[in-house]
Write a structure and sequence with these properties.
The protein is an alpha/beta fold.
Length: about 625
């Protein structure tokens, strides 16, 4: 969701900016733009098409400079339109803005400024002209109004006036070798060096700088950074402080961060989502690599101490990650015997809850930058729940830095907006957490530990067998593509998997899909069942199978069409109105990981049959960095 790239150096950096935006396309966007300082004038190209179109525009416009900023926008304030696209320039014409020049300040911004309406009114009264509906344009005018020959000072002063979340990159026509950045609530990093040691970069994601530099400084909340050729410095405004203080270099060290540019190559696959579905055996194997025994130190050096001080678990997550947490609740309570609560992160901090200091707060996030989950974590900490752990796919993310403990999954870069391999590796990490807590609490025997470890090591092979079912799922997808609605059913541990399957279908095919516990059919959803409503059933061979078969009969009796993902030994036979795909084996407690894959493939191939933009579904973003 929204991407920033900025650079200052000695070469033409326009290609670097555009290539950085291409690497951020996976985050989701609906417009994009580049601005540079060229011949002492601000120049820009903006587009509501893809970055490839922007690339062509910059070349046609002759955009060429040693300094510039670029952005991909996911619309919040104002429709997706060129006039709302970033970068924004300042425009001042009134008496108090007499010193302002059209195009004096150029700025890009991620986040949401909550007090933008009040600031807009104030700046309009001072003679500033607004050409967009965005909250971002307010910042560009505010920086211009506060500018008195020192851009760094103006940005620092502006941040004291902003309420909300922001990551910004700014430059000024009067200072041809300077870019200034600032962050509060949205991620921003500094890149050092490039083709030569003098280059400096800003980006919202290290992926944007892949192949450019691997020397990264992670900026913290309240940081303002000054970039000039061959040097940079940082000042910070601590929470509630009214001024900024210079940061010692040791407090913001330069780290070597390897981001493989090849990770975003599509290869032989039609879409990134398809590639990532088929990468799951390797992703699971990598995530479990080195797990030779169930030990607390899998989660960090302090894990043994922390796990000994908790009596319950609180899981905070959004979207797909929420569903992985919902599945983990079943594991944690049935295997580890520990009370577990799962909360939608975007709701948790806005209600009264009952905190318990002996709670392990577990956050789940693919990016580690999800704004709602980070805010929920901080809220839980403010309530006195200091023991925190994250299951996250990005080792250098804000979430990993904020939590006491972490299990970093190794799914690799996930480009498709609809999460696949991140979800299954989250489940693997959560199962390890379950076994660890079970062992420490005396609920896991050595024999059970060995059996679970054997099953986990076999997961990649089992997943390959499930992926081999793709041709049968394609046949289902051809039928689904002609439908407008679908119902997903599961019971117990597999109900969250049904929820995830419905989410995948609606995300990328735009077919309305709902999921229910199968036992709830007769309490309302059965009214929707007709021959035009396909009903997908997750049917593992577990203790609830016979109950589930009864629920399936309820659908058949109303003329519903069933599509069943069944284990090999469930004895569910295909017949008219009852379509069956058999998974090769039943996998016990780990069954949800296997049953997820057919639902991912169903959503993917249905979307392909409908011709939707699979990797970049409308209105959605990959990394949700605003509330």
């Amino acid at each position: 969701m929204c991407g920033i790239v900025g650079a200052v150096g000695s070469r033409n950096i326009t290609p670097v900016l555009v290539e950085g935006l291409k690497r951020l396309e996976y985050r989701g966007y609906d417009s994009c733009g580049v601005a540079v300082l060229q011949d002492a004038q601000l120049r820009r190209s903006r587009s509501t098409e893809r970055v490839s179109e922007l690339d062509a525009l910059t070349k046609a416009d002759g955009i060429n400079s040693t300094l510039g900023i670029a952005h991909t926008r996911w619309a919040t304030h104002g429709a997706p339109a060129v006039h709302n696209a970033h970068p924004h320039f300042s425009h001042g014409t009134g008496k108090d803005a007499a010193k302002a020049k059209p195009g004096h300040i150029a700025l890009v911004h991620n986040g949401i400024i909550e007090n933008h309406e009040a600031l807009r009114a104030e700046l309009q009264a001072k003679g500033y002209e607004f050409l967009s509906q965005t909250d971002t344009e307010v910042i560009s005018h505010l920086v211009d109004h506060l500018y008195d020959g020192d851009l760094f000072a103006a940005v620092k002063a502006a941040t004291l006036r902003l309420t909300g979340a922001y990551a910004i990159a700014v430059f000024c026509s009067d200072e041809p070798q300077r870019v200034v950045g600032a962050r509060q609530g949205s991620p921003l990093i500094l890149g050092v060096g490039g083709v030569d040691a003098s280059e400096r970069f800003l980006a919202s994601d290290a992926m944007a700088l892949a192949g450019v530099t691997d020397q990264i400084v992670y900026l913290e909340e309240g940081d303002v950074v000054d970039l000039q050729p061959g040097r940079h410095w940082i000042e910070n405004r601590a929470q509630g402080a009214t001024e900024h203080q210079r940061v010692d270099a040791a407090d913001r060290p330069v780290r070597t961060v390897t981001v493989h540019s090849g990770a975003v190559e599509l290869g032989p696959y039609r879409h990134y989502m398809q590639k990532e579905i088929f990468e799951q055996p390797r992703a699971i194997a990598d995530t479990l690599e080195g797990v030779l025994a169930i030990t607390p130190d899998l989660f960090g050096d302090k894990a043994l101490e922390v796990f000994g001080q908790i009596d319950r678990v609180l899981i905070l997550a959004c979207g797909t990650s929420y569903y992985s947490g919902s599945a983990a609740k079943y594991w944690l309570e049935s295997i580890a015997k520990i009370p577990t609560q799962v909360e939608v992160a975007s709701e948790y901090r806005y209600r009264d809850s009952v905190p318990d200091a002996r709670t392990l707060v577990v956050t789940i996030t693919q990016s580690g930058e999800t704004a709602d989950t980070l805010a929920a974590l901080k809220h839980a900490q403010s309530l006195g729940m200091k023991h925190t752990l994250t299951i996250c796919n990005v080792a250098t993310s804000a979430m990993v830095r904020e939590c006491e403990l972490a299990y970093v999954t190794r799914a690799g870069v996930e480009i498709g907006v609809a999460s696949t391999k991140a979800f299954t590796t989250q489940l693997a990490g959560l199962f390890l957490l379950t076994l660890t807590l079970a062992k420490l609490r005396g609920h896991l025997s050595p024999e059970q530990e060995a059996e679970h470890l054997t099953d986990m090591r076999h997961l990649p092979v089992a997943l390959q067998s499930v992926l081999a079912l793709e041709p049968q799922i394609i046949a289902w997808a051809e039928l689904f593509a002609r439908k407008d609605n679908a119902l997903f059913l599961g019971r117990g541990l597999h109900y969250p998997i049904a929820l995830e399957g419905a989410l995948k279908l609606k995300e990328i095919s735009y077919i309305h899909a709902e999921a229910y516990p199968a036992g709830e059919l007769k309490h309302g959803p059965l009214a929707l069942v007709t021959s035009e409503m396909p009903v997908v059933v997750v049917a593992p061979h577990d203790t609830l199978l016979e109950k589930l078969k009864s629920n399936m009969q309820e659908v058949r009796a109303r003329g519903g069409e069933l599509y069943v993902c069944a284990d090999a030994d469930t004895h569910i036979q295909a017949e008219p109105g009852l379509h069956v795909i058999r998974l090769p084996e039943h996998y016990g407690a780990l069954s949800p990981i296997l049953h997820t894959v057919p639902l991912q493939l169903l959503a993917y191939h249905t979307a392909c049959a409908k011709g939707t933009d699979v990797d970049k579904p409308r209105n959605l973003a990959k990394s949700v960095t605003v509330e």
